[in-house]
């Protein structure tokens, strides 16, 4: 994992095996394309895990990079999207991207109940779970029978005490994800190119702003979508 178990790519030159490279969709800038290997691929895998298509209902927690990519891919697939945030401003930005229903989880703490209300008691075919400890049980409640709970984050903690009965009774598919393979990235890039999806890049930093960029990201809640570096400034 480049940037985790291998050095990252904030460099002028990086050596890569040729079979790890994927063509950039023709309509994207390099800054926009840089969002595909992690957020774009994770979102694509979520869509595929739940077989999202016309009539599907997708619930997204927050407005980070994966949630916004999943919103764009889900709308391209004809799904209905419900998105949560603590910021009304961010919810309005999500609405402009096609979100059908908006939930401010500070104003509506039982957001899972609101999801059930919006879906006539059924719940969502796909819930992309980014919260972890504080949100996991509600995410289970918000998932429809036979639905997919796609768990990718733990911003409120990595440990959760959960009642297994709803998972068993509703025959839920709980899927963990750690980004994906090169072939997953290839498929994601091809889908994004075909749908002409423009990744949402909230702010672009120069290479000498690395400290500022990582501080901005670590603060949490300041950005909508992705942050990126431009290697030529």
> Proportion of β residues?
15-25%
Gap between N and C termini, in Å? 27 Å
Low-confidence stretches: none
Radius of gyration: 18 Å
Can you walk through the features of this model?
- With 233 residues, the chain is an alpha/beta fold.
- The chain is 36% helix and 18% strand.
- It contains 9 helices and 8 strands.
- It is globular, with a radius of gyration of 18 Å.
Throw out a few tags for this protein.
233 residues, alpha/beta, 6-stranded parallel beta sheet, two-stranded parallel ribbon, 8 strands, 36% helix
In short:
This protein has 233 residues and is of the alpha/beta class.
Write the layout of secondary structure elements.
Blueprint: H1 30-33, H2 36-49, E1 57-61, H3 65-76, E2 80-85, H4 88-96, E3 101-104, H5 111-118, E4 124-129, H6 136-142, E5 143-151, H7 164-169, E6 173-176, H8 182-195, E7 201-205, H9 210-219, E8 226-229
Parallel strand pairs: 1-2, 1-4, 2-3, 4-5, 5-6, 7-8
Helix pairs in contact: 2-3, 2-8, 5-6
